[in-house]
Amino acid sequence: MPAFGLLLDDFDDGVRDPVRWSGSYGAVSEAGGRARVPVSTGFSGYASAPQYTLAGAQVACRVYPPAVGGAASEARAEVFVITAVGGTDAGFSLNAVTGELACLLRSGYYDPAPVTVVYSSTAHAWMRLREVNGSLHWDVSADAGTWTTLRTAASPAWAAGTDLAVVLAGHRDSGTNDFAEFDNFNIVRPGELRPLQRGLAGPGPNPRTASTVRGG
Fold first, then answer.
1. Residue 91 — left, alpha, or beta (φ > 0 → left; ψ -120 to 50 → alpha)?
2. d(CA 155, CA 54)
3. d(Cα 83, Cα 167) in Å, to the nearest integer?
4. In what order do the strands lie in the sheet with 165-172?
5. What pLDDT score does 1 carry?
6. What is the pLDDT of residues 71-99, one digit of tens each?
7. Nearest-angstrom CA–CA distance, 81 and 58
8. In the predicted model, what is the mean pLDDT of residues 27-52?
């Protein structure tokens, strides 16, 4: 039963790893040392196999949002830990149209108490969801070295499940097709990001009613 801390990828080899990201969907690719996810009216995402636990672990990566590109209300880059139950998940949803970053914990695609902040491409460059001693923490960072917690909530029971997946996703409601990019997923670098392993101590609705995350 691996924890998410064992899932690592720097996306530098130019090819989607079919083992690490076996649940991927849409025309995802790697380019320029990053995972590239189409942002269109369809749904695309780098997705892991549903075989991980979030208990005592984390998911974290560098996120590059899509261009607005004429979208009416949403052009999104998202990082979610998902369960086998559609719409029961937790993570980040960045909307380039509104300039907002939402920290979400949803059931039935609904979060009764979302935390939303004005997105900063520098201060919120890195996003991390971690579980520590019964609590979930949504953290952001400019450099993956110093982190700021935007939200804390009691861990849902599913966080200890062993069939969780992570999705790096993109979607827009209209406008010109584009892409979001993700980099250095859970990569350990001295003085910066250090993935947590199971058992180690760690340091709106989403303004819409439908999810932009889809499992593979």
1. left
2. 10
3. 11
4. 44-47, 165-172, 75-82, 89-95, 100-106, 115-118
5. 65
6. 999 999 999 999 999 999 999 999 999 99
7. 10
8. 97
Question: Which residue, among 98, 97, 151, has the nearest Cα to 127 in the 3D structure?
Answer: 151
- Over 90: is that where the pLDDT of 199 sits? no
Q: Which residues, 6 or more positions from 178, have their beta carbon under 8 angstroms from its beta carbon?
A: 38, 39, 40, 66, 67, 69, 75, 172
Does position 53 have pLDDT exceeding 90, yes or no?
yes
At 131, which helix (H) or strand (E)?
strand 126-132
What integer is the mean pLDDT of 62-70? 97
CATH number belonging to the domain at 4-183, selected among 3.40.50.720, 3.30.50.10, 1.10.443.10, 2.60.120.200: 2.60.120.200
Q: pLDDT tens digits, residue range 99-124?
A: 999 999 999 999 999 999 999 999 99
Tokens of 156: 């849902």
Question: What does the alpha-carbon distance between residue 136 and residue 44 come to, in Å, rounded to a whole number?
Answer: 26
Q: DSSP E strands: which ranges in 24-121?
A: 29-31, 34-39, 44-47, 58-64, 75-82, 89-95, 100-106, 115-118
Rounded to whole angstroms, the Cα distance separating 192 from 160 reads 26
User: Residues 122-145, buried b or exposed e (16+ Cβ, 10 A)?
Assistant: eebbbbbbbbbeeebbbbbbeebe
Q: What does DSSP say about strands 165-172 and 44-47: parallel, antiparallel, or unpaired?
A: antiparallel
